[in-house]
Amino acid sequence: MAFRADESVNSGFESVKSYFIPRGVETKERKRSEDKLLDIVEKYGPVVESYPSWHPLVTHHDDQSPTTTPSDRCGYKGLDHTRYFVNAFITCPYGDGQEVLDSVESLPYSPVARISAERLEVELYQSNANPILVSCDWDKPLSDNCMIPASIAVPLMLQKEVPCWEWSTRGETWESMRSYFIGSPHGSRSSLFVNQETALTMKRIWSLLINTGMFGPIKVSNQY
């Protein structure tokens, strides 16, 4: 099935709204919460399922076992009831959330973006949860709809992947690495993180790299 970005954007927002604003919330509070979600989407991009493994929100992980969603594997503590946007995520722990704030403050320095956390003064998930927004504010301008341009995506991909030649035993094709490189949801040529031009540029560069043999023989089975 073809990737329909607009459908993914709309269905993603409706899913997050249903998750974070359950039935029974009074009308006034529901409006405040929904307006906050809309503000976050406008500033940080649409709802997504997972990040590219090079994205600053998840990049601090073991390169031999990459992760594409925020967790303790990439430096966060205390996350609970979490949903993702292109350049931010919301987590709603039942405690005071200070563990989340402290872990974000302790993340390693990023030369391309500033990762920060703030409490949200609205009701999300449950009345006794404490919603926190963790955001990624890039140093360079983004493309339309908060998409990440090739000038940022390509060097970050290379920064994460090229060092792997030292221990890698096989070259993974674009098809098997696509979710790691362009995030989810995605199609064959684009995602909510990168447009078609950027994804094709990344694909060409990746194909050149694996065809040098630097990662080992190219894996040709179990592709999707």
Describe what you observe in this structure:
By secondary structure, the chain is of the alpha+beta class. It folds into 2 domains: 5-138, no CATH class; 144-211. The protein is 35% helix and 11% strand. The protein contains 6 helices and 5 strands. It has helices at 5-20, 27-44, 98-105, 150-161, 174-182, 196-211; strands at residues 47-48, 82-85, 88-91, 113-119, 132-138. Strands 1-2-3-5-4 form a 5-stranded antiparallel β-sheet. A hairpin with a 2-residue loop joins strand 2 (82-85) and strand 3. Helix 4 packs parallel to helix 6. The chain is globular. The protein starts with a helix and ends in a 13-residue tail after the last helix.
Give the secondary structure arrangement, pairings included:
Layout: H1 5-20, H2 27-44, E1 47-48, E2 82-85, E3 88-91, H3 98-105, E4 113-119, E5 132-138, H4 150-161, H5 174-182, H6 196-211
Antiparallel strand pairs: 1-2, 2-3, 3-5, 4-5
Helix pairs in contact: 4-6
Alpha-carbon Rg, integer = 18 Å
- How many strand units? 5
The N- to C-terminal Cα distance equals 13 Å
Give the CA-based shape: globular
Q: Give the number of domains.
A: 2
Portion in strands: 5-15%
Q: Count of DSSP helices?
A: 6
Helical amount among residues, as a percent range?
A: 25-40%
Coarse structural class: alpha+beta
Largest sheet: 5 strands, antiparallel
Give the helices and strands as they follow along the chain. HHEEEHEEHHH
Global mean pLDDT: 92
Widest sheet, order of strands: 1-2-3-5-4
